[in-house]
Each structure stands twice: as structure tokens, then as C-alpha cells.
Amino acid sequence: MKKTLVLGASTNPDRYANLAIHRLVDKNEPVVAFGLREGEIAGVKIHTEREAFPNIDTVTLYVGPKHQPDYYDYLISLKPRRVIFNPGTENPEFYSLLNKEGIEVEVACTLVLLGTDQY
Q1: Of 113, 116, 88, residue with least CA distance to 15
Q2: d(CA 114, CA 110)
Q3: Strand 44-47 relative to strand 39-41: parallel, antiparallel, unpaired?
Q4: Do 84 and 110 form a contact (C-beta atoms < 8 A)?
Q5: DSSP letter assigned to residue 36
Q6: Taken in order 90, 36, 16, 108, is the CA torsion positive or negative?
Q7: What's the confidence (pLDDT) of residue 88?
Q8: I need a surface site. Which of 51, 64, 96, 117 has the fewest CB within 10 A?
Q9: Residues in the chain where the model's pLDDT stays below 50
């Protein structure tokens, strides 16, 4: 099964990353979460250390372009099949780096993809 890493996870229920984790869990999609603060969302632990999570198919970004450079090498090292750039996370510089590594770039909304069964 494909596993998703939600980068920018937050226990704040008003955050889209929080809602995405709930929706992924509801759809029985395997999910891991990374955020700045520890916590748990829908039974998913928020990791605060950059772990080498195995079998990551998709990374869905909820971190703005200004802070993404801190994660370039880490995310590329996970060798995901694709990275989803949610609204507000668009970053052509990162698209280029990912494409050079053969990683698919998708500029989309994870919530919409899940809601329309296009995930």
C-alpha cells in the first residue's frame, strides 16, 4: 500500500494538514506525520525528528515555500513517487530539484483529491 507523509502536521483542528490526516485515516490510507510539535491526530503520531520513513509513496506539503529549503534534502532522501504542493506551498525551485530526481510534482489540493477519489 502507498504510504503518505504529511509534512507540516498540526494538532490544530483548523489546519488543513490536520484535516488531511483525518481524511487519509478515514480512507484507510497509511499515513505518517511530521511537524514542529509532538502530538497525535486521529491516532497518527506527529514526529518531530526527520526519520527515514520507509515506503513513502506521497509527500503532501503543508509548509510554505520560505521554509521548504530546510526539507529539500530530507524529502528527496525518502525517494517518494510524488510530492503534492497544496495551495500556498507552490515552489518552482523545489519542482525542479524533484524533477531532476525523477520525483513527480503535483500542484493540487490533497483534500480535493481525496474527496473526488483521485488520490
Answers
A1: 88
A2: 6
A3: antiparallel
A4: yes
A5: S
A6: positive
A7: 97
A8: 117
A9: none
- Give CA–CA dist 36/49, Å, rounded: 9
How would you label 48-70 residue by residue, b for 16+ Cβ within 10 Å and e otherwise?
eeeeeeeebbbbbbbbeeeebee
Written out in words, the top-level CATH class of the domain with range 3-115 is alpha beta
SS (H, E, C) 97-116: HHHHCCCEEEECCHHHHHHC
Question: What is the sign, positive or negative, of the torsion defined by CA atoms of 48, 64, 54, 21?
Answer: positive
Contact 74, 21 (CB under 8 A): no
Nearest to 36 by CA among 44, 24, 48: 48
The helix, strand and coil proportions of the chain, stated in percent and rounded to the nearest 5, come to: 30, 25, 45
pLDDT of residue 2: 87
User: What is the distance between the alpha carbons of residues 60 and 119, in angstroms, rounded to a whole number?
Assistant: 11
Phi, psi (5° rounding) for residue 112?
-70, -45
